[in-house]
Amino acid sequence: MLNAGSRRVPGWLKLLSGLCLLLCLVGETGAKRVPKIPRCPTTCSCTKDSAFCVDTKTIPKSFPPGIISLTMVNAAFTTIPEGAFSHLHLLQFLFIENNDIQALSKHTFRGLKSLTHLSLSNNNLQLLPRELFKYFDILTDLDLRGNSFRCDCKIKWLVDWMEKTNTSVPAIYCASPFEFQGRRIHDLTPRDFNCISADFAVYETFPFQSVSVESYEFNDDQFVAFAQPDTGFCTLFVWDHVEMVFRRYHNITARSAVYCKPVVINNTLYMVVAQLFGGSHIYKWEEDPQRFVKIQDIDTTRVRKPNFVETFQLDDEWYFVVADSSKAGSTSIYRWNSNGFYSHQSLHPWHRDTHVEFLDVEGKQRLILSSASQPPVVYQWNRSLRQFAFHSQITETADVQMVKHFWVRKVLYLCLTRFIGDSKILRWEGQRYVEIQTLPSRGSMAVYPFTVGPRQYLLLGSDFSFSRVYLWDDLTQRFQPFQELNMRAPRAFSLVSVDNKDILLAASFKGNTLAYQHLIVDLSAK
């Protein structure tokens, strides 16, 4: 019996509904496609576990599963990027041979921890990036033959790796440079490469102009003194061992200072302040209260236009000499006598001297005077007369602004810097100085030879272009260009070594005074 209002569903409708449900179920099942197995790339031929690829334009992104050996020859690409084979983590054998591969990424083989055999033979590789093989845990065979390796600092790591690895590596050879050409890389050692270089980088900038800089130690602290005629001070800075910078310490009023020369005698600090106008003076440092006190004036009838101050010791006595650049003045020597410095000797007048250099040559103490009006001359100390006497003239070269000396392996050299014309390097030959090198130096007013560790440098300032740092080459016994520094009209330099830092200070007449740090650079680490 049917309830009131109910109706019978026809059989054909039930059949149609079931058919629709069946079609829907079949449709849902068909939507879940079975994953396709990657095919062998068109430029490759594949077996169950290997692939051999020829003339491939790029490294294929997919291979059939189970590939453990891959060979690529005559490839159309020259570089292989990082992670190029990371999708082939089962790979055990990789042969990239007879191609024109020129560059690899240090991460090219990332992910290939199962690799046991690698061949990069017969390509055009000149170097291999550092840590290229760090991803290999079980590599047993490596073939690098048939490449044009350049055996310089960038391959030093490979030499070191080959010394330590258990991987078998057939003999490979250097194609360049000339000194290593044809040598087996296996026969090289890390010591064959001179990969430690250096760089001078700006470390600190002082917002003032200066014409002299001198460094000194006093009471276990490191100081520098700058002559600043524009601001009217001799300014002292002290090294801050915490902040690792120079900080302002004290000023001496000096309205036309051209040189501020410190000298420590019997644990007492004195400062010779040479001025163009208003006279030159000597100051003494007092601790309580901390200040400089003027103790002496320098005779203005002798020193009229000072340009440079040098201090030195002779027979346990202290002296300083002022180079006078006026037509009427005279370069003068002063001697310390326990109470102050007193006039000791006047050297030649009327020569407009610009610089004085003190040096000891084979036990004979000498002064070299540079002059705007004549070639450099040498005065030698006469111990019996306790005076300097004219000894010789160095060269016929005029317009020498400054002469500085330096020693290399117990051999004495001089550098003569000129404002017009080339600067010169001279070597002492026992009886005379012999010219061995010229350096271009138009506009040079200052030169500074200095050493950092085993390195002998020469800094040649310039008013018209970059100042140039040269490095001494033991093989040629000459200076070679090393680095250019951008400083404006440098007038003096000084090197400070403190807290494992080597700081080169440069006094600039037309720009900020600068401090450069000497940094050691390992070229093999790049």
From TrEMBL:
Please give the chief subcellular localization of this protein. Answer: secreted
User: This protein's superkingdom?
Assistant: Eukaryota
Q: Does the keyword Secreted apply?
A: yes
The residues the entry assigns to the signal sequence are 1-31
Keyword annotations from UniProtKB, A to Z: Glycoprotein, Leucine-rich repeat, Repeat, Secreted, Signal
Q: Which residues form the LRRCT domain?
A: 147-196
Q: What PROSITE patterns does the annotation carry? A: EAR (PS50912), LRR (PS51450)
Presence of the UniProt keyword Signal in the record: yes
- Cell compartment(s), UniProt: Secreted
Cellular component, GO, one term: extracellular region
SUPFAM superfamilies recorded: Calcium-dependent phosphotriesterase (SSF63829), L domain-like (SSF52058)
Stored SMART domains: LRR_TYP, LRRCT
GO BP annotations listed: regulation of exocytosis
InterPro entries linked to this entry: Cys-rich_flank_reg_C, EAR, EPTP, Leu-rich_rpt, Leu-rich_rpt_typical-subtyp, LGI_related, LRR_dom_sf
Q: What is this protein called?
A: Leucine-rich repeat LGI family, member 3
